[in-house]
Amino acid sequence: MSRFDAFFEGASFRSATPQYEAGDELDVIVTGRDGDDALVRIGDTILRLPETDVVADSEVRIRVTEFDAGESTGTAELL
């Protein structure tokens, strides 16, 4: 094993499109708005909080309600 291989042994990289399941609870920061919906971006994944009165840059706790792994998009609700 080369030193390079030894250095990176066991290392892994985070995905730019994390996957979630309905029911997952997360602490997130609202990154923007689209009409009445607040948007949360985690890497290239976008979670929409429909008809939520939360301003951008707010830290909130959410529960994922739907998620499309192929599109890396979903909806969530405030807790």
Automatic annotation (TrEMBL):
<dbReference type="Pfam" id="PF24353">
    <property type="entry name" value="DUF7513"/>
</dbReference>
<dbReference type="InterPro" id="IPR055935">
    <property type="entry name" value="DUF7513"/>
</dbReference>
<protein>
    <recommendedName>
        <fullName>DUF7513 domain-containing protein</fullName>
    </recommendedName>
</protein>
<feature type="domain" description="DUF7513">
    <location>
        <begin position="1"/>
        <end position="79"/>
    </location>
</feature>
